[in-house]
Specification:
By secondary structure, this protein is of the alpha/beta class. About 40% of the residues lie in helices and about 15% in strands. It binds nicotinamide-adenine-dinucleotide and uridine-5'-diphosphate-4-deoxy-4-fluoro-alpha-D-galactose.
């Protein structure tokens, strides 16, 4: 029995391959390499000391998917493939809906055709609305969703709806929707990690490039939020803890009986750290000064966002284990050893 990992050459995908291998699962990676390269797969092979079956291709190419499903006995899918830059999605919404929504429809149609009915989907905390309201923090899974503020978030919300409707139409589908908070860190080998192209949008990759002297200083977007030090607060989760949640979700689906509504679960630590907290922790881990400037708030940002992770513990027996210190140490090791990511030189 094989698991198809769409987007498996990417940041979260590669770490999940390592955890799946540790848990004894067999998998096939399918990725169009639009935001990754095969170097990440080579690095995974080094870590797990085993070849990885990799097929380059797009989830929107149904014929290629059908070939894959015909060739391998695919029992379930972990679906990471998609575009993920919030700001970019505002300027190119059609690309985002095409990749993330239409792409998922293609995948689901082929899965149905081949009677493959187990899927774990990468959703995001961004689907929640009114998350700034004191009534809602920490966020539980039954918090209202859907009042999204950018096409990326809307695409995740739309796919959640598609999956719920698919289950209603055919309740032999077994579906897990994981709402990730802010994944950071890297595998402790320093061989795989986050490799953003161009200027990083997210905080930790930006800080790590400042630490390695690729960038001069960090812009801190606002210090007048209603938080303990005025800077934005988020729920940062080690990518290996997140990867482990996929293994647990898959186990759960394997044991799940038919007629079970989709599992929807927050994957976070439940702890909120501010931008200044992260800078401090990173300075300690890297033993480098992180110069920063306070600038205006970033459009669309909220003051705080962190999970109530109790349901994940209850239903999946999963909880995040790694500390912020570990996240920074592992991120720094990856950055220091690979200042240009997977690119040589
Ligand atoms: P990533 O960009 O590193 O990985 C995504 C992979 O999908 C890439 O390797 C890319 O080449 C591939 N891909 C994109 N479009 C494709 C297509 N049409 N067909 C085949 N492959 C395609 O991103 P990541 O951080 O690993 O994120 C994985 C998933 O988790 C995404 O769906 C993302 O939206 C979601 N997510 C990420 C975060 C985060 O902060 N990293 C937070 C919440 C949710
Ligand atoms: N920040 C800075 N400077 C930077 C980058 C970020 O001060 O250069 C601040 C932000 O204002 C925010 C915090 O650092 O307060 C975290 O920002 P990120 O961009 O790292 O993360 P977000 O919470 O904004 O968004 C991330 C992903 C989204 C996902 C969301 C919830 O980018 O895709 O988490 O899961 F939807």
């Amino acid at each position: 029995m094989n698991i198809l990992i769409t987007g498996g050459a990417g940041y979260i995908g590669t770490h999940t391959l390592v955890e799946l291998n540790n848990a004894g699962y067999e998998f096939i990676v399918y990725d169009n390499l639009s935001n990754s390269s095969q170097a990440s797969i080579k690095a995974v092979e080094k870590i797990i000391n085993k070849d990885v079956i990799f097929q380059e291709g797009d989830i929107r190419d149904k014929e290629a998917l059908k070939k894959l499903f015909s060739k391998y006995n695919i029992d379930s899918v972990i679906h990471f493939a998609g575009l993920k830059a919030v700001g970019e999605s505002v300027s190119t919404p059609l690309e985002y809906y095409n990749n993330n929504v239409y792409g998922t429809l293609c995948l689901l149609e082929v899965m149905k055709e081949f009677d493959c009915k187990k899927i774990v989907f990468s959703s995001s905390a961004t689907v929640y609305n009114e998350i700034d309201s004191k009534n809602y923090i920490p966020l539980t899974e039954n918090n209202p969703i859907g009042n999204t503020t950018n096409p990326y978030g809307t695409s995740k919300f739309m796919v959640e709806r598609v999956l719920k409707d698919l289950y209603i139409s055919d309740n032999s589908f077994k579906i897990a929707i994981l709402r990730y908070f802010n994944p950071v860190g890297a595998h402790e080998s320093g061989l795989i990690g986050e490799d953003p192209s161009g200027i990083p949008n997210n905080l930790m990759p930006y800080i790590s490039q400042v630490a390695v002297a690729k960038r001069e200083y960090l812009n801190v977007f606002g210090d007048d939020y209603d938080t303990h030090d005025g800077t934005g607060v988020r729920d940062y989760i080690h990518v290996l803890d997140l990867a482990d949640a996929h293994v647990k979700a898959l186990n759960y689906l394997d044991l799940m009986a038919n007629n079970n509504v989709p599992l929807i679960v927050n994957i976070g630590t439940g702890i909120g750290y501010s931008v200044l907290d992260i800078i401090k922790a990173y300075e300690k881990a890297s033993n480098k000064k992180i110069p920063y400037k306070i600038v205006n708030r970033r459009l669309g940002d909220i003051s705080k966002c962190y999970a109530n992770p109790t349901y994940a513990k209850e239903i999946l027996n999963w909880e995040a284990k790694r500390t912020l210190e570990q996240m920074c140490i592992d991120s720094w090791r990856w950055q220091k050893n690979n200042p240009n990511g997977y690119k040589k030189g």
